[in-house]
Design goal:
single chain; Dodecin subunit-like; alpha+beta; 66 residues
């Protein structure tokens, strides 16, 4: 089996967990057979003392050959 790993960054206005979920959901529209996610880090955008955007930097693993 051959597994490929790609890096993606996704965002959400709700939470870091939602940003990570969005990374998997959005990538799965074009990448098939995603088997794992590794969240490398989180970042946020702040305005007026509040977090307005949550960003998740993720590595996604998927099978390209069995």
């Amino acid at each position: 089996m051959i597994v490929k790993v790609i890096e993606v960054v996704s965002e959400s206005t709700k939470s870091w967990e939602d940003a990570a979920q969005n990374a998997v959901a959005d990538a799965s529209k074009t990448v098939k057979h995603i088997t794992g996610v590794d969240v490398i880090g989180f970042k946020g955008e702040v305005k007026d003392g509040k977090i307005i955007k949550y960003k998740a930097h993720c590595k996604l693993a998927f099978v390209i050959q069995e």
